[in-house]
Amino acid sequence: MADVVAEWAGKERLFRLTFGGVLELEEACGKDAIGAIFLRVSSGKFRAEDIWHTLRIALIGGGENKVAAKQLLEAHFERQPWHDNAALAGDILIALMSGVEDGDASNDEEEPEPMRFSEVSQICREFNMSPLDLREMTYADFINMVRGFNAGSKKAEPPTEEEFDEILAKYEPEALK
To answer: What is the maximum alpha-carbon separation in the chain?
Structure first.
């Protein structure tokens, strides 16, 4: 897991980002890819939402409930120096990226698209895992798993429309409404 234990808002707290947290962070930060968020925070060219949502989602991943995490941020975010909050968010994102194996460097100048759970969850059938298992994976494990799978002789094929509808009906029936 991408765990960081740090003193924040008066006590030592656990900050954790899982793969599901990464997807939520991308959505919360204007649908930017995690790499773009990481680059903004690490370069000091971050947006306030990058820091706010990284801390909020990592608090939830660390065991705080959603309401408590929001209340903590509302009560303490402005009391902490921006530099301290940004440094903590940076530590969380660095922990997230730790363990991602070097891949092929792309010369493509286009910014990557954020991941959508409905698309990446298709890998669950290949590895006989549940979507919940996928959400709880570390980001590094997910990236390394996909790279390893794609490096093999068999490439991941997109599901047919029928297969996709079956998956949605089984794991996210509310999406079909």
So the answer is: 54
